[in-house]
Amino acid sequence: MVLTTCVFYFLLIFQYCYGVTVPTRKLIDGNEIPVLGFGTYLLTSEDVKIAIPAALKNGYRHIDTAFDYQNEKDIGIALKEWFSTGGKREDLFITSKLNDISRMLMQLPTQANRPSDVAEAAEMTLNNLGLEYVDMYLVHLPFTLQRTPDFRHLKYENGTYALDTSTDHIAVWKEMEKLVKAGKAKSIGLSNFNKTQVLRVWANSEIKPSNLQIETNVYIQQEELNELCKELGIVLTGYSPLGSADTTHLRRRKRQTGGMLPVLEHPVVQGIARKYGKSPAQIVLRYKLQRNIVAIPKSRNSDHIKENIEVFDFQLSSSDMTRLRKLDQNGRYRKFDFLTFNVEHHPEYPFSYRIPDAN
């Protein structure tokens, strides 16, 4: 009894000092990815100064960013400070993404989903982060927009974007493979690709995609892609695990969400949270982990950052997993449809396009 109590308090002290130890999953290429990471989409420079040190302090070792997020340099500064205090590069798993529809008009390239741009885009990311390599480099989106000679997106008079319909996933992937061979990326993968697109890259690749990152939470559970990834041995990462309540401004049109409550306010989620003595966020994260999906929650709040990683000390019952499974909206709920860029007519637009309800 005394020994058990001592061990318990030792673990508490260890966790306080060093944070939670996050389990990993083996990728198809032999590398390992932490099953819980820290997302950085929409984090400003000031946010990053608080959030990244808090994440690292609490045990996060998987940081997810992208050139398009406009915060790689800030993350690089935070990582440099962590390294200066004894942190080791090999203990981190850094994900970034091949830029496609960047809003950064002051940096080049603002459009990089072309074979000729891959090497330059990757080098810019590494320079921003102050790293010699990233652990995972993803093709951010499967479609491409036209650009002007000064690397701005080409717009028509009516405000819509000009589509570049020459997108060639295989040619882009061949350049991605070169990054691995050059030691610039440990692993490579895809983001926001649909089943047909994933299979096309898979069938024409020397180095297989080891990761697929897509939007997924209890409202959009992506079972088809989850099953595909299991079949191929691809690790699935889900962004927007908490529902991304701060991203409604991204949508050009109201989608078919039926006036649904935010994910964390759903009565089923809240009821299960009360049952386990956990927060709603911890419940939906635990649900994702038990479905073998890597989760990358984001927060600007240090307390929430700590809370979100404390999901390894309990298990959801099979009945509660079933209750959460039934919250799936069968594709009717999608925050990240990219319709703000008028891309639904691009031949590589990855989603089934629906005309939203008028209400």
UniProtKB/TrEMBL annotation:
Keyword NADP: yes
Tree of life domain: Eukaryota
PROSITE patterns recorded: ALDOKETO_REDUCTASE_1, ALDOKETO_REDUCTASE_2
GO molecular function: oxidoreductase activity
Active-site positions on this chain: 69 (proton donor)
Ranges of residues in domain NADP-dependent oxidoreductase: 36-328
Keyword Signal: yes
Site note Lowers pKa of active site Tyr, residues: 97
Keywords: NADP, Oxidoreductase, Signal
Signal peptide: 1-19
Pfam families: Aldo_ket_red (PF00248)
Amino-acid positions noted as binding substrate in the UniProt annotation, renumbered to this chain: 140
Homology family: Belongs to the aldo/keto reductase family.
Protein name per its UniProtKB record: NADP-dependent oxidoreductase domain-containing protein
